[in-house]
Amino acid sequence: MNQQSATTTTTEDAGRYGLPQHALQRIAEAVTLAEAKTSAEIRVVVTRAPLVQHPFFSILWASLAALVLPWLIVLAYPMSALSALALQSMLFVILAAALLMPGMAEKAVPRLALKAAARNAAIETFLSYGIPQTAGRTGILIFAAARERLVEVVADDAAHGPLGAAAWRDICDAVAARAREGSLAEGLVAGVEKAGDLLAGPLPRKPDDRNEIPNHVVVL
């Protein structure tokens, strides 16, 4: 099992982070067409749920700032220890309240933490949806975290072996390029089409090939 990731910059509105039914159908049709060229199995999953608990990082940054900033102020404006502790408490309350506000809480999460969470979520999804259970170990997952604007590709051994990490980067780039233009749906279609083209060479469709993984998009 191997993985690549990329960042997108899009939101697709149906709910706030969802995909309208016609877009889901278009992606499913792209999967069907891609799999007509290859024995590989392609699964697309989109999650709208937050990948991390935002309040944790808001409280973390407020705590760190409240620990450090008062002592810098004390260096410039000497005060009693009791006053410094009171200042710490006041700063923590103010900063925590500000960072817990809608919009600010998400910005408080480090990008590295989001990417790590996306990787973990993609691997968990890959396993929980039975993608490693294909007969030829040819399954791949294209996983999009709509809220965080991240995309991950996880590939099983037989798919990864002949192509390598560069192929999965190409798929991520295909999704991200169209997503930056404003459409996550079109980005996912482009990623699926790219996957079909890349996989068709080393893993061509066989006469007795059967569809082992449903082609519809899973929206979490």
Describe the structure.
The radius of gyration is 22 Å and the shape is elongated. It contains eight helices and five strands. Strands 1-4-3-2-5 form a five-stranded mixed sheet, sandwiched between helices. By secondary structure, the chain is of the alpha/beta class. It comes from Xanthobacter flavus. This is Membrane protein.
CATH topology of the largest domain: Diaminopimelate Epimerase, Chain A, domain 1
Helix content: 40-55%
Q: Describe the main β-sheet briefly.
A: 5 strands, mixed
User: H/E element string?
Assistant: EHEHHHHEEHHHE
Strand order of the largest sheet: 1-4-3-2-5
Total number of beta strands: 5
Low-confidence blocks of residues: 6-17
Strand content: 5-15%
In whole angstroms, the N-to-C terminal distance is 22 Å
CATH class of the largest domain: Alpha Beta
Overall shape: it is elongated
CATH architecture of the largest domain: Roll
Integer average pLDDT = 86
Number of domains: 2
Task: Provide a count of the helices.
Answer: 8
